[in-house]
Amino acid sequence: MNILVCLKQILDPEIPLRDFKIDAVRCEAQRGSAGLVMNIFCANALETALQFRERHGGKITAISFGDASAEEVLRKALALRVDNAVLITRDNSGRIEPMVAARVLAAAARKLGSVDLILTGREAGDWGEGQTGGLIAEELDCPAISFVEQIAPIASNPRSLEVRRQTDNGIEVLEASPPLVLTITNHEQNVPRIAKTRDVMMAFRQPLTQWNLPELGLDPVSTSEVRAEIAALTIPQKETHCEYVAGESLEERVTAFAQRISAVLTSA
Amino acid sequence: MSNVVSCIFSWNGLDRAVLGILGCGQRLAKQVEAKHCIVLLGQSTEATLSELAGFADSIHVANHPLLVRYHIETTLTALTQACGTLQPFAILLGNDTYSQELAPRLAHRLGGSAAGDALSLEVKNGSILVNRPVYGGKALAKIALRRSPGVVWLRARAQAPAQPQEHRAEVCALTLSLQPDERIKIISQQSENTSSEVRLEDARFIVSGGRGLGGPEPFKQLQALADSMGAQMAASRAACDAGWVPPTWQVGQTGKKVAPELYLAIAVSGASQHLMGIADAKVVAAINTDRDAPIFSRCQFGLVEDYRNVVGLLQQKLSELRS
Amino acid sequence: MNRAEATRIVYWNITHIWVMYALLAPTVLIGGHGLYRHVRRWRRGQPEQRFDQPWARLNNVFRHALLQRATRRERYAGVFHTLLFWGMIVLTAATIVVLIDEDFSIRIMRGEFYLWFQSLTVDLFGVAALGGIGLAAYRRLFLKPKQLVYTREATVLLVLFFIILLTGFLLEGWRIAVTNDPWGKWSPIGYAIALVSKPIMSETLLRGAHATGWWFHLVLVFGLLAWAPYTKMAHVFTAVLNLYTMPLTPRGAALKTLDFEKTDSSLGVNSLAAFSWKDLLDFDACTECGRCTNACPANAVGKNLSPRDIILDLQRLSHSRTKLNEPLIGATPSLSEDALWACTTCAACMEACPVGISQMPKIVDMRRYLTMEKAELPETMQAAIASLEARGHPFAGAQYSRLDWAKGLNVPQRSEVKDCAVLLWVGCGGALLERNQKVIRSITQLLQKAGIKFAVLGREEKCTGDVARRLGHEFLFQSLAKENIATFERYQIKTVVTACPHCFNTFKNEYPELGSQFQVFHHTEFLEQLVREGKLNPQPRPNAKVTFHDPCYLGRHNDIYDPPRKLAGMSVKSPVFEMAQKREKSFCCGGGGGLSFVDEHPTQRVNRARAQQAVDTGADILAVGCPFCMTMMEDGVKTCQNGQSGRPMQVMDVAELLWESVHNGQIDEDKKIS
């Protein structure tokens, strides 16, 4: 099974609210003190791929389309012993148009050849659009299944996969045949592992394939298309003011709290 | 004249979510002077059509056997065909997981733009502007869709519900040419909720637990409290990730978006990603040992205590107040 | 009778003495081989430098072996062991005197020396030794404390010693009886036995019993000497060696620094081959006394961690294994992963050990293997590591930035001033945990009041790496450390004051090996000095009872106990109430070793146990000196208050107490002036 895992590098979404600042003109978050990290769902996807390869064999290629700094994310993937890593850098900056990302990643998949499974995170922690995975499927004319938690080969039909994914009602179990795109969501079984120190030390010496857009057969028109634009970006003002329930003793405080809850329950 | 299409599949009755989508469709159609069309896929009965007839200008029905159960590729193909014939200006969907995965692909097939998690929509200079939270809920973006149709999945329950109109919708049958797609087969679609439980998104009262509970056991205590309040249980992502509770309980950016009358968060710190899931909650209250926990910034009232000292006592006090 | 000629006939009543010399050969061979095997095992270990500063090392041997200082820290065991130890020393000396007198014909066993030493002193010390055995036997057979290891070997050894000593006295007594020794009274015990035996035993019987007894006694002694190196009695040899080679640095410097340039060997320890020879010696020095497990706070709350069993299991594996690369972790229940992850690195085990074993560093060595070679550690600890890598602090989910605490205080940042006398290192706990921000504010206000020219690094601070290191991630620790050292060098920082004992310990004991060159003080040391210099004037707060919890990383790790107490004492009118477990016996708050990132089972919370001890003093205020202690104790005290009436106990940092006493005093003075 040849697995391609798409990794996105984003600004650390865990920075405290007070440190989060935006550039209202460029309509994006300011770098500030935030580090650059691998999107958590991409990390879940990578973990899913690693577990699959551990149990059932296969090869994993990690790929990232972004700024030159995205190499860090690929080095992390190499430290987790992916078989190959590919970096595709872009010329512009700012929000990556999902359509463009999908075209680039699909072209890379074609160039790599015989890719069975493409894993992406369900969405990214910056813009949270959740489109890229599905659009890659459209570009490659293959099915896509989203919000996947677990995958395993099917005993009776080794070319197929059993895919468990989350829906509003519960878990859906599907049988799917590659080639296939899966967008991965967080689950207690796919918490990203940390890398072994030796592998981290080695990761920097591993080869990294770098492609530019012409090498992928992409013209500037298709990679500069804009389907949606950020017209404005603001930080919402805090509206609520919290009343901390008071009282001399614990019992008094809980009673007061209960009264307020009861008021909402009965008036709703 | 262009069309604004509200998509409905997996019919569960005229619930708050459907009314929200239809409301948005109605208002948008009016604003751009378009026809409001409902595309209804799956088995639909006369009763269904009758219920919907008061909320749109036309209902386009496809009762294909392959659409009885949701199948991503088949449903997508069906929607593409259905919407394709209508050449819409906008296509509206809800925020269920199926809609989320369909929207971008549908937009691609129709040559349009997609956006999601919309809190509200506007139209400016012929373009749809979608207002949605981004950066884990820390910022609000206004996204301008540059291509048509604009395919948008909405926070359905946050939209003002549709108003019944005077005229009845015209019902048309859609002819779809669908083949079974063997590339994906459905093995099971199990529901984790028992039939008596309300879906979290529709729950009126919710009790939610977070990392501070430390394990699965304390959730039983919270469940008892929730049961006594007639509330549903939910949890933060940390609790779900730790395997203490099922992932269907997760509320937040990548979990359920809930809109209850009361959301009681116990030992939940309130990271912005979690707050994204309760943006539409009316009253939020919290119990947390940390007075400066971000959850309190979203609360109307709060109790700075250790939940261990409070939950049992709170349940007792609430039952006293009831009687 | 001329006292100058007082003596006794050596080998009286004994014939065929050559048999004794003949038996000496196998004794020496077998015993010697036993000792040789120990040494050979140690030599399989990695190199380590432990033979520098001989005088300091001999001093350790003098204090703890000869004077039995460490052994006497536990009263009952200290008494019986000292009696036994000194008894055996004197008896051995007496035997050497016989050897010198008889085999080398240097006639020292005469006259006053014979009477006072060889007879009286030896008898008294023999009785002392018997008394020691009696106390030890009572403890092992009747009191049965949990901390001991109950093996047949241990009981047999006790019995053996007892019989050897008893027979020694009997032989003495029977000799005195038959020879009508004129100097008999100088051996009071022997004399008493003679008095009792003479009426009931004929001379023939006495002689026969004496001869038989003598050979019996000899066989037992030689047997013991041959057998001893194969038992825990080897500690006579190994403990002395271990005390000689024990670390001369503070306990806070106990962890080894790895060189990542040379890593063909494994990172961390999961095999005997990866331990150093000193570690292997540690295993053999263990006397099975169990004090380490007794002192371990994790063990006290019921966790699976037992330092004693870790060392003894490793000892057993070291003796029994032929393949040195077999894994150690998980080889026995005591070496399980959850035992290793339960350790708070408080070093109570090291403090308690009477023979200088370093238990805690071996646990960290094994953690290093788990974290760096296998990348397997408990999930919440892993989250702390991930946070350190992504944002330079271990508190995933923290909602504060590094300078939020400084709002309104006009605190200079190092990047904005030309220089500063003192760099105040805030630390991750101080900046990012809301409760600890108040402590940092108190410290900065005190420094400002004292007129100290200080600055902070603000966003340029990265975690010192203490958490990473204790979790076994030496690689991450070194990379964080190097970044901080580079920052310090860039700003030419020479003096650092820090509010966190973990930061303090890492700066003081662990950074120098990586190239740092600055002085560091814990805030309590620094503030206490300011008070002594008159730069701060605390006015004691009346009617507040204060108790103080010694932070492990300040106290046991660095032997700093007095400055924080003094500060607490200066801030209130009454003296500091001490908990029973104080100073070097302080009971860990449970937050070290990465444990503050773990949700412990409710029945196994170290902090709750310690909080109960604090609450039991009846004090109003629990003073602490560490952000981890602050968090753990506040949490612990809350659970103790459950169901208790009376005023809740407040947890405050010593700096907060001091600031209140300085600050309020100032206000009072102003009032006086107006």
Name its key features.
heterotrimer; A: 268 residues; alpha/beta; Rossmann fold; 2 domains; nine-stranded mixed β-sheet; 7 helices; 15 strands; 29% strand; globular; C: 674 residues; mainly alpha; Fumarate Reductase Cytochrome B subunit; 4 domains; four-stranded parallel β-sheet; three-stranded parallel β-sheet; 26 helices; elongated; disordered C terminus
Describe the SSE topology.
The complex is a heterotrimer of chains A (268), B (323) and C (674).
Chain A: E1 2-6, E2 9-11, E3 22-23, E4 28-29, E5 36-38, H1 40-56, E6 59-66, H2 71-79, E7 84-89, H3 98-112, E8 117-121, H4 132-140, E9 144-154, E10 157-166, E11 171-176, E12 180-184, H5 197-203, E13 209-211, H6 220-223, E14 228-234, E15 243-244, H7 250-267
Parallel strand pairs in A: 1-6, 1-8, 6-7, 7-13, 8-12, 9-12
Antiparallel strand pairs in A: 2-5, 3-4, 9-10, 10-11
Helix pairs in contact in A: 2-5, 3-4
Chain B: E1 3-8, H1 16-32, E2 35-41, H2 46-52, E3 58-62, H3 72-86, E4 90-93, H4 97-110, E5 113-118, E6 120-124, E7 127-134, E8 139-145, E9 150-154, E10 170-173, E11 184-189, E12 205-209, H5 217-229, E13 232-235, H6 237-241, E14 262-266, H7 272-277, E15 283-287, E16 301-303, H8 307-322
Parallel strand pairs in B: 1-2, 1-4, 2-3, 3-10, 4-9, 5-9, 12-13, 12-14, 14-15, 15-16
Antiparallel strand pairs in B: 6-7, 7-8
Helix pairs in contact in B: 3-4, 5-8
Chain C: H1 17-42, H2 54-66, H3 75-103, H4 111-143, H5 152-179, H6 188-200, H7 203-227, H8 235-244, H9 277-285, H10 291-295, H11 297-300, H12 307-320, H13 337-341, H14 348-352, H15 359-373, H16 379-391, E1 422-425, H17 427-432, H18 434-449, E2 454-455, H19 466-470, H20 474-490, E3 495-498, H21 501-510, E4 519-522, H22 523-532, E5 546-548, H23 562-571, H24 606-615, E6 621-624, H25 627-641, E7 650-653, H26 654-673
Parallel strand pairs in C: 1-2, 1-3, 3-4, 5-6, 6-7
Helix pairs in contact in C: 1-7, 1-9, 2-8, 3-4, 4-5, 5-6, 5-7, 8-9, 9-12, 18-26, 22-23, 23-26, 24-25
